[in-house]
């Protein structure tokens, strides 16, 4: 089965072709980062318009790279949510139009399930069950995964997601959008121990996260240094390192607890923040002490991309799941409401 995957949940247009037996054949991505940088964040209307311009040319590009034609497509998967509703509608509209024209099944895929399954695209994919850390601009969650669609939420952020906290800290440090990678780059120049930031919600049991207090602590530190006329490049780098270290330590502590509580010895981390090198190194060190293994996607598949949607869609389309006649666009969509593959096959969900 050859699946065309379409990702348009936010500010990146991703398209990929995934074959159920041959694996990933081709993928292409267009990022709108430069366009939104002038505004300091994503402008939803501009994002939707740019998806309209870029989506069909990218579809043709991946077909050409794979040496395929539209007539070779067996099914189409697109991101149905969570995300910006206008951007989701662009991807869904194109997917349904192509599906109708080609007479192939179409399916809306959960964006975070795509991220969760992205490590399956690697040569050494994780086996079920495992604990997944989903960490991005909009989500910070720990999930126990027994199989595709079999998800148990262990804990999540009660306020800001880790990626959102990175972006807001970047603005405090006078860094451009996107904030996460720029904070990480600046932190490389920081001096360890120059500041000590709190590790939120690690002094109590549980697997919930909270990053709003850390964000406020960072703002207070920035304000104090500016008032003391101590605002310079080194101070900014030191604060960036202290903030990044606090986030990483918090995530590592919670992941260790989740592995212990679940009895799993495999940890998957996915989402845009999973590309952070300090986080990867710290999780690998923790897992090594726990006798566990860590899995993650290659950096280009940590952020939004069409390959993860094509893979996730392929698994569900093979099980028989289909969209109806209507485009699915769900700005908010709890992942634990998704059906498992066994349920799809048994009840014929579509």
TrEMBL record:
Protein's UniProt name: tRNA N6-adenosine threonylcarbamoyltransferase
Subcellular localization, as worded in the UniProt entry: Cytoplasm
GO biological process: tRNA threonylcarbamoyladenosine modification
Cofactor(s) demanded: Fe(2+)
Catalyzed reaction equations: L-threonylcarbamoyladenylate + adenosine(37) in tRNA = N(6)-L-threonylcarbamoyladenosine(37) in tRNA + AMP + H(+)
Molecular function terms, GO-annotated: iron ion binding; tRNA N(6)-L-threonylcarbamoyladenine synthase activity
Positions with a binding annotation for Fe cation: 111, 115, 304
Domain Gcp-like: 24-311
HAMAP family (alphabetical): TsaD
Similarity-based family: Belongs to the KAE1 / TsaD family.
Listed Pfam families: TsaD
Function: Required for the formation of a threonylcarbamoyl group on adenosine at position 37 (t(6)A37) in tRNAs that read codons beginning with adenine. Is involved in the transfer of the threonylcarbamoyl moiety of threonylcarbamoyl-AMP (TC-AMP) to the N6 group of A37, together with TsaE and TsaB. TsaD likely plays a direct catalytic role in this reaction.
Transmembrane segments: none
Binding site for substrate: 134-138, 167, 180, 276
NCBIfam families tied to this protein: gcp_kae1, T6A_TsaD_YgjD
Family annotation (SUPFAM superfamilies): Actin-like ATPase domain
Keywords: Acyltransferase, Cytoplasm, Iron, Metal-binding, Transferase, tRNA processing
EC number(s) reported in the record: 2.3.1.234
Gene Ontology, cellular component aspect: cytoplasm
Cofactor: binding details: Binds 1 Fe(2+) ion per subunit.
InterPro entries per record: ATPase_NBD, Gcp-like_dom, KAE1/TsaD, TsaD
């Amino acid at each position: 089965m050859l699946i065309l995957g379409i990702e348009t949940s936010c500010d990146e247009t991703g398209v990929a072709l995934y074959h159920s037996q041959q694996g990933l054949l081709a993928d292409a991505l267009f990022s709108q980062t430069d366009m939104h940088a002038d505004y300091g964040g994503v402008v939803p209307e501009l994002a939707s318009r740019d998806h309209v311009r870029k989506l069909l040319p990218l579809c043709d590009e991946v077909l050409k790279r794979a040496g395929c034609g539209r007539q070779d497509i067996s099914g189409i998967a697109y991101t149905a949510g969570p995300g910006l509703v206008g951007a989701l509608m662009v991807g869904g509209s194109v997917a349904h139009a192509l599906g109708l024209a080609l007479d192939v099944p179409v399916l809306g895929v959960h964006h975070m399930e795509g991220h969760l399954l992205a490590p399956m695209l690697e040569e050494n994919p994780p086996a079920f069950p495992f604990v997944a850390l989903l960490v991005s601009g909009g989500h910070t969650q720990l999930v126990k995964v027994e199989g595709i669609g079999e998800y148990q939420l262990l804990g999540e952020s009660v306020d800001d997601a880790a990626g959102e906290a990175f972006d807001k800290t970047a603005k405090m440090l006078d860094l451009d959008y996107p904030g996460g990678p720029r904070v990480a780059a600046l932190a490389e120049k920081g001096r360890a121990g120059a500041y000590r930031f709190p590790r939120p919600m690690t002094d109590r049991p549980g697997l919930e996260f909270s990053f709003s207090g850390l964000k406020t602590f960072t703002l207070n530190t920035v304000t104090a240094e500016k008032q003391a006329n101590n605002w310079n490049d080194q101070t900014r780098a030191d604060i960036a390192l202290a903030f990044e270290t606090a986030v990483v330590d918090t995530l590592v502590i919670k992941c260790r607890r989740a592995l212990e509580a679940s009895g799993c010895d495999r940890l998957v981390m996915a989402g845009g923040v999973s590309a952070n090198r300090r986080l990867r190194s710290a999780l690998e060190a923790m897992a090594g002490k726990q006798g566990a293994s860590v899995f993650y996607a290659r950096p280009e598949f940590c952020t939004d991309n069409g390959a993860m949607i094509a893979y996730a869609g392929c698994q569900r389309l093979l099980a028989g799941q289909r969209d109806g006649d209507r485009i699915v666009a769900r700005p908010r969509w709890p992942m634990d409401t998704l059906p498992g593959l066994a349920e799809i096959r048994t009840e014929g969900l579509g």
